[in-house]
């Protein structure tokens, strides 16, 4: 079936918001707040700076928990899942949002790299970063709409 880009964005955003609903009211509230402000942060600070800020909010704890679980013999997938569960709700919301934006980047632009690694790659042009930034902001418009409609206050 032929679908337009707006439909693809809407579908992806809908799936993201439905995923967030699995983590409870506190995570929903924080995620909703972050989604609502992300476009502004990107326009003021740039895509890379915004994503680095978000990643800094959860990455150290997530890595620490992940490594502890790997040492206990868990495989990567299970260790990642359990490490996520150990994060505070604030950090869960930041990680979910980061992962959702990174997931769209990979899906839409057919990239295998993490979005931040792609941005800092010497082969990535500033024009391409601008195109990705525009696309992420377009996705965030849908995410904000669905967050407002679906996530609890």
Helix and strand topology:
Elements: H1 5-20, H2 25-45, H3 47-71, H4 76-86, H5 89-109, H6 115-120, H7 126-150
Question: Care to describe what's here?
Answer:
With 153 residues, the chain is mostly helical. Helix 2 runs antiparallel to helix 7, helix 3 crosses helix 5 and helix 5 packs across helix 7. It is globular and about 45 Å long. It starts with a helix and ends with a helix.
Which features does this protein show?
mainly alpha, 153 residues
In a few lines, what is going on in this structure?
This protein is an all-alpha fold and 153 residues long.
- List how many beta strands DSSP finds: 0
Largest sheet: none
Tell me which oligomeric state these chains represent: single chain
- Number of contiguous helices: 7
Backbone shape: globular
The low-pLDDT segments are none
Structural class: mainly alpha
Beginning-to-end CA distance, first to last residue: 36 Å
Over all CA atoms, what is the radius of gyration?
16 Å
Please state roughly what percent of the residues sit in beta strands, choosing from under 5%, 5-15%, 15-25%, 25-35%, 35-45% or over 45%: under 5%
Compressed to H and E, one letter per element, the order equals HHHHHHH
| Fraction in helix | over 70%
Give the mean pLDDT: 95
